[in-house]
Design brief:
By secondary structure, this protein is α+β, with helices and mostly antiparallel strands. It is about 35% helix and about 15% strand. β1 and β2 form a beta hairpin.
């Protein structure tokens, strides 16, 4: 007698379990039916709200785009951060117009490496190295016209690059 009661209990448990599984499948089927729209939300891109000139005691002075929600720290980071020992009080900021109205960022001949100087029109690897060598031997350039003392740079080459260079160091 005990074994038939045992079989009936297990049969009832199995039947109950089967009903729960079937009910779960029905509920899931109703929830996953087509016809309900799925909403996809994309994170909006960064909007440019203007430009700013960052100069003074930063590693890469020049014009930078200002994105909506950016902070002063973000702008200074974009400009390469502070030079050694500088603070926010040593930075020059000038808010500009649209990105299309920017002037090109100038290359600081007191800080530029050979590869960057080669980007200037008429300056090849040899002349770029000559600029760095001159700077290492004579110290920082006091003004851009001192570049005329570098072997390989004449009036014509200088006139082609004078609007693209600066001495901020």
């Amino acid at each position: 007698m005990g074994s038939s009661k045992y079989n009936i209990n297990w049969t009832l448990v199995a039947l109950l379990l089967a009903l729960v599984i079937i009910a779960g499948i029905v509920v899931l089927g109703l929830k996953c039916r087509g016809g309900q729209a799925v909403e996809v939300t994309l994170t909006p891109g960064r909007e440019i709200s203007g430009t700013i000139y960052v100069g003074g005691a930063v590693n890469n002075p020049g014009y930078y785009p200002i994105f909506t929600g950016e902070t002063l720290e973000d702008v200074i980071t974009a400009a390469g951060g502070f030079t050694n020992g500088a603070s926010v009080y040593d930075v020059e900021l000038s808010i500009g117009g649209a990105v299309e109205e920017e002037t090109p960022q100038k290359i600081d001949i007191n800080r530029a490496e050979v590869w960057l100087l080669e980007a200037l029109p008429g300056i090849g690897k040899t002349t770029a190295q000559a600029i760095v060598d001159y700077r290492n031997q004579h110290g920082l350039f006091r003004d851009i016209y001192e570049l005329l003392n570098v072997p390989g740079i004449g009036e014509s080459t200088f006139n082609n690059i004078k609007d693209l260079i600066t001495v901020n160091g």
